[in-house]
Design goal:
9-stranded antiparallel beta sheet; single chain; Beta-lactamase; about 35% helix; alpha+beta; 13 helices; globular
Length: about 400
Amino acid sequence: MSITRTRISRRTATVLATALLAVFVPAESRAAAAPDPPSRLQRDADTLRNDGVTGVSVRLETPHGVRTARSGVGDLRTGQPVATDGHLRIGSTTKTFVAVVVLQLAGEGRLSLDDTVDAWLPGLVRGHGNDGREVTLRQLLQHTSGLPDYIGDVVPELSAAGYRANRWTTYTSRQRVALAMRHRPSFAPGAGWAYSNTDYVLLGLVIKAVTGQSWEHEVRARILRPLRLTHTLAPGNRPFLPGPHARNYQQFEPDGPLADTTVAYLPFDADADGSLISTAADTDRFFTALLQGRLLAPAQLAEMQRTVEIPADRGFPRGTRDGLGLDWTPLSCGGGYWGHSGDGFGYLVWPATTADGRSTVTVSLHSRPGDESSATRQLHDVTALVDHALCSDR
């Protein structure tokens, strides 16, 4: 009983003190103490929320420090906010990690980017006009191989029911490649550009053929441990996100309900093309180290940044070019940024780093819409946020 009285008396005293302070502090001082208006970073995050994203998180690191913004909620059921630097599925951002390992092996003389796929994986790429004797590792890295994408074969029904029915299905890397080989190539090797997740599944197998270790082992040994990326992991076929994390939601049809897709869709969330889990802080640190030359020798980094044009109708921001596991996108203030986005059912991650590695931002969306117009509008919001963030620091 005495504890309750003590708490009441303290609360009462606090209220009285606050009231007296309001009386004696001049009005102009009280006005000066009013909350600051939302930053541009926060306003841009709120724009994404207003355009239908359930939860948004942004982390911007510059020579002036770290700024963050969150908007929306991290859990529709409880209303909890988006986790601060929570764990994220980074999807195809995984490809940049894999590309770094391949380029390190090239720098060590253990492989050549002009090696054919067949030199390391004899007979695997065959059938329906696909021929690993004609495809080089460079073409795999840059999506100029023409090899078909296996993704369509592991998503038999694009619906909430299909997600739930198939999310536990597992495939080996060779099984994924075999699915792709049932289709004809998009073009002859080197004759065009088409994004294919099969390319990076093959690169994961090449890493194993060269080193005797899995691509996950090599990423840990060559990147995660040296950079102390302690919150980045390759979960394999373990489908759950470690905490803390926001929940992810996918709308499978226009105006349809949102399905909770936080649990991985193992048919395409479990291989070298897109399985890593990370945080915004770790992702920023990785791209900073890469662009500052701490992961690759100058010759290999230059190879990685040798780009080709991405056709305008492929859903990338205007002017984006593709390097070896690394994309370049122009900025409105001049120059551009490097990065590699990743997405899957219910999430999108967009890392972006200036050419000198001094400023980097990672934007994370925790829901994806079911119609193309909403997806296009949200992508415009993301690229505008990144442009504002990296240009304002100049």
